Structures are given as structure tokens and as C-alpha cells.
């Protein structure tokens, strides 16, 4: 039997990060630094929640730190129009390095096992963040598809020169998407620490940021499908735990790899007919 | 002469920049700067053992860094060095499993060739997917990284697991099938020389052959390359295969020089860390040599530092990140100055 609540909780960090990344990619940017923003969010959440015992303040701290890292990234990718993959790689290393080093300085070489106050549960074992995540799916879809801001965002992702010619500011639009994506990434990491693990460990995101990027592609840049793709990751994670207890004929690594294999297969099948934003990953420099 | 002066000047700027970043990082973490610098220097160069460790740590960075250079210069953002590293070693270990009784003298080169092929096929697949199916290499190599790591986890606990013992580990290579070690006190192995030779070969290929020139042209200006009659797609797939081959070789060298067997923790992030190494080497094969050596030294030095302070290799990540961002800023300043000079003329 599938434990739906557990599945949703496991899926929430990837889903949140992937939803933010959806908007970010729709505006024409790719966030290779997502992994780093998540681990920084998780660390900030731990630093605040541990002494205060207040998980809400932890979530807030996580979002703030996610935003700060995103603004640092934006300084390079938007202001200086530097390559997004290069900048994102540096942001990842920065966040992994800072959190790892600070954590060791505070808690010693091996890192003791921390126990954080988890978020209170509501109906059916869910909490506010999982509910918020589910609620965000239709809201984000509506914003992207139906609002003027969403339309402008898509224009900046598909054909920035035309968007600029139509009187829109591509840089301002991309900054807007960055702010949302940074907050989401920080919240995703904070929730991983406070909602899923109830603890913090060095490198605890374990690739979830990269998974989120992959799931955006898997979900064809549409919030609903991206959310479903994230659920698949959550499902694979619950299976992994179940199998470690029971053991099965099929190796559990197969289930962990399944979302990636499926994502790749979908990409291969859909190929060029996909809906990847036309200007994805290209720095935008305003011509003077 | 002027070129040499320019290179020296640039090297000096980077060296001073890195030193500054190192000191600032130590200060930011409230580590005693003098003592920490002494410990890092000691660990990296202080003794024969230290120097050997620096060279050994720089080897996977150099080989995989060269791989990144080749792909990125062709305009293919290969960030799957990690997966190709793993798959290379895995292919080598599979060969050993299938043919354990091959004479050791032949076995070692065979394993290295298998590693190159494994990495090349894996990266070539990503290149092919972009060229033929429009799947961005950035995305596909991320996915392939995860798949490779799961394949490793599965293989070392399944088909490749050693016969005796419960640990998820492959069979250990016989000593004679390992890469040559120079003495008993240190880990210094012949793979170090292999990496330097590879850097020279990649330089010759990229800058002195027609193929290499075409590869760079494809990266810098694909439409010009197309007009010139080059099969751009085929060159891109080829560049990915070569890139993956080098990353796979890095895995094969790590396998046959140090570990001698594969386990779940084999990857150690070398494939990721090679990206900043390649960038700070100016995406130039000869630039990768000092870049990989510097970071090899920092990793070796930080190990020594970790013995006396609660730090670790994560400290080097911060330095790498700051160096890449500083490098981007430096480039920006240079571009602006060039533009100003242009305007004045």
C-alpha cells in the first residue's frame, strides 16, 4: 500500500524547487545553482530553528538565504550577462562549501545528529508546506498562462529581443522570476530539513536540486506535469525505504534511477517537438 | 616574448587572486591564518609525501578537466563528467570481471582503454541526443550522472560484487595490474604522467590540427562552421565522445592507480570539481595543468588542515567558487577596458 501522505512529504522539496525552476526556465534562464540554494536553505533553517525551536522562523530563514544566493547569481547572469551554467556551478560549490565548513566548525568533524522541531501536522499527516505546494500548482499554471505578467515572462523566455521591442524589460522580468525561484528553492531546502528529515546533515540535499531541474524538463515546463513528475520522485523515494526494510527481487537502485530514465526517455521521444523555451540558457544583453 | 610576458602577468594575477581568496576564506571561518597556511603548505608541498599527494589529487582533476575543455570549446556544456568518470571505471571493472585471467601486463592498458570507451559512449550518447533529438546536453548529462551513480551502486552490490566478503565492493585488482607506483612510501603513480601527456596531446589536437581547429570553430561560430561546409552535428558528437573518453580515463586511472576496486563511494565528485578547474584554466588544455595542480595542492593541503581543525575539503569548494566568480569579474573588467580603448581610438 502506498502511504499518500508520506509520498507527498517526500515529494515536496523537489516539487517546490521544480515549480520555482519552471517559472525561471519559462523566463529563459536555467538554474544550475538550484542544488546549492536548497542546501543553503536547509542549513539556514537549521541554524534558526535549532536555538529558537520555531520551525516557521526556520522556513523564513531558508527562503531568505535562497533569495540572497539567487540575487548573487542574478548579479552575474543578469547584470553582467555571464554564462548561466558557469555561474550556477560556482553558486553550487559556494553553498556546498560554506554549509559544509560552517557545519563542521559548529558541530565538529563528524557532525552530530541534530534533532529539529518538525513542522506541526494537519489533517491526514500533511502540513502547511505540502498543502501550500499543492495549492501553488494551479496558481502558478494560472499566472503563467493567463496573466499579463506570465505572458511577458514567456515572451522573455521564447524571444527576448521581440519582448524588448514590445516595450518589456527582459532583465526586470527575469529578475522577477529569479526572486520567485530563489524563495521557492530556499523553502524547498528548509522543508527538507524541517519537514522531511527533522535534522540537518552535510550535503543532505543529495542531488535533489539537479533532480528538480530534470523534472521541469520531464514535466514539459508545465506546472501540473512538473508536479506529477516530482511525485514520481517522491514515490521512488518511499519505495526505496520500503525495500530497505523488506527486500525485493528488483534491485532498489532501479527504482531510484527510474525517474531519470523516464525523464530521458520522454525527452528522446518528444525530441524537438518539446516546449523548451526558445532562449533557455542564453544570456540577454540589451543592445545600446 | 610579449605573449610570454602577458601569460606571466595573467598567471601572477590569478596566483595573487587565489592567495587573497584563500586568506579571506580562512579569515571568514575564523581560522588562524598563519597556522592554517602553514598546515596547508605542509600538507601540499612540505614533504615528499605531500608533493606526491598533491600530484595524485590533481590527476583526476586534470584528466576530467581536459575532458570539460574539449566539450565546452565545441559549445557542448558537458556537466556529466561525474557520470562519465563513474561509467569509465565501471566499464574497466566489468572487463576485469569478464576476463580476470588476462596477463596483468596487458590487463592494465586494456582496462584503461575500456574506461575511455565507456566514458566516450556515455557522453557521445548525450551529444547525439542533442544533435538528433534536440535534448540539451546540460539536461541529459545531469540525468545520466544520476543513472551512472545508480548503476555503480547496483553493480558493486550485484553482478560485480567480490566473491568473498559481504561488502558492496568489486574484486581487487592484482598488484601487477595496477598502474605503476614509483616508491612504497607514497601513492605517486604513473597516471600522473599520463595526465600531463594527455594535456599535451589535447593541446596539439585543439591548436595544431585541422580537426581541432574545426572543433573550436564549431564552438565559437556554428553558423560560420556550417557555411564552411562542416558537419556541425557530427563534430559536436565527436567532441562529446572525446570529452567523455577523457573523463572516463580519469575514472579508469583512479580505479587502477589508487583504489584497485570499486565501491559505492568511488566517485568523490571529481567530475563536478573538474568544471571549475577547466574554467580557471581558461578552457585551455595547457591552462588546465596549473589549474588542476593548484587545486590538487589545495585538496591535499586541506586534508592536513582537517587533522588539526574541524574543516575539510568543503573549504576548497568555497575557494573554487570564489575563484570562478572572481574570474568572471576579472573578465568583465577586461572586456570593459577593451571597449573603452576601442571607443577612445
CATH superfamily of chain A: ABC transporter involved in vitamin B12 uptake, BtuC
Strand content of chain B: under 5%
Number of DSSP-assigned strands of chain A:
0
- Determine the strand fraction of chain A and express it as a percent band: under 5%
Number of strands of chain B: 0
Task: Report helical residue fraction of chain A.
Answer: over 70%
Helix content of chain B: over 70%
DSSP helix count of chain B? 13
Word description of this protein:
The complex is a heterodimer of chains A (288) and B (345). Chain A has 288 residues and is mainly α. Chain A has one domain: ABC transporter involved in vitamin B12 uptake, BtuC. Helix content of chain A is 73%, strand content 0%. Chain A contains eleven helices and no strands. Chain A has helices spanning 4-26, 34-52, 55-79, 84-107, 128-146, 148-158, 160-165, 170-197, 208-218, 223-246, 252-270. The longest helix of chain A has 28 residues, at 170-197. Chain A is globular and about 55 Å long. In chain A, 55% of the residues are buried. Chain B is an all-alpha fold and 345 residues long. Helices cover 77% and strands 0% of the residues of chain B. Chain B has 13 helices and no strands. Chain B has helices at 2-28, 33-45, 48-73, 81-98, 104-133, 137-157, 191-208, 210-220, 222-227, 232-259, 270-280, 285-308, 314-344. The two termini of chain B are 25 Å apart. The interface between A and B is large, with 49 and 47 residues.
